[in-house]
Amino acid sequence: MTQHLTVVNHPLIQHKLTLMREKETSTAVFRQLLREISQLLAYEVTDQLPMTTRRIETPLQEMDAPALDGRKLALISILRAGNGLLDGMLELIPSARVGFVGLYRDEETLKPVQYYFKVPDHLDERLVIVVDPMLATGNSSAAAIDLLKQAGAKDIRFLCLLAAPEGVARMKEAHPDVPIVTASLDERLNDVGYILPGLGDAGDRMFGTK
Length: 210
Ligand code: URA
Description:
- By secondary structure, the chain is α/β, with parallel strands linked by helices.
- It has one domain: Rossmann fold, CATH 3.40.50.
- It is 32% helix and 29% strand.
- The chain has helices at residues 11-21, 27-45, 83-92, 139-150, 165-174, 202-207; strands at residues 5-7, 51-57, 62-68, 74-78, 97-105, 112-118, 127-131, 134-135, 155-159, 162-163, 180-182, 184-185, 188-189, 195-196.
- α1 (11-21) packs antiparallel against α2 and α2 packs across α3.
- The structure holds uracil (URA).
- Uracil binds next to α6.
């Protein structure tokens, strides 16, 4: 991927996203839509993966058929909302390895602090796709990517549902080498860090915790 930010304007994604934004949408429908959108976004974020060919036999003849090259992908979920993007993506890429990064915000320093970190081995040899539905301030995403780079990751892409301009700018400053794929670049953050117009708290909406 060469662009720093890709907004996927596919009609199916945009229609499903509108349904997700509506406040009356139920938890069950929200979750289902997120699963569907995650598959459509997975298609975009895995664009230009290295390919090779494999000699196979069709019922009629032999051929050199295209196949993915290299080691398995790693999908890294930023807890907890990232998990909402995982299931759909794993249906499409069933052999991907999966990792989790948990961060909370220290109320005094306002800096992200790690409370969980479990990722696949050989990150340096994998395409690492970090998933988090909401790129808001970008602080936790940038911190998660710092940790992944410390663990060896070199080829990283970031997938989200909505991005705020503030989060995109923060990521560009901290990790200009990490392309971002999103379904929408929204207007801005409000004064408590929510994306406007947004869809509210993605974790609460997908897990029904509010
Ligand atoms: N996280 C959310 O869940 N929603 C926002 O709007 C911003 C961050």
